[in-house]
Specification:
- The chain is of the alpha+beta class.
- It has 3 helices and 6 strands, in the order E-E-H-H-E-E-H-E-E.
Amino acid sequence: MTVTAIPHPTGHPGYSEILPCEPRSAAVARRLVRTALRAWGQEGLIDDGALIVTELVANAARHSGSRLIRVVISPSPGGFVRLGVVDRSRTLPMMRADSDAGNTRGRGLLLVDALTDRWGTDLYRWGKQVWGELRCEVRP
């Protein structure tokens, strides 16, 4: 995991949407991921991208205490696509290390870690963005 303090976030070309900070917003976030990845010719990343953004939205809804979140899908330097969820909490996410097979909660960041090429958290004065990146498919 990478943690970066960013004093003044900069904009990137991409897709974003402000949504209520609740688990059912994941459906809209998945549609946004599908739209962005299709537009960029990255259809092979859709399934992983949808699962990643679902977990990030669920974590924000469960832990941030925010009223709203922003879902962001953007190109990232080096041939990656970044999927992020921005909330108003500055509390860093923590990946569970236990192996309690009976507990189905708390595995979101384990999935994000397994599916992404890299993931991390950008801290802002007013909150954070938790993100995961997928390497773009090579295009002929």
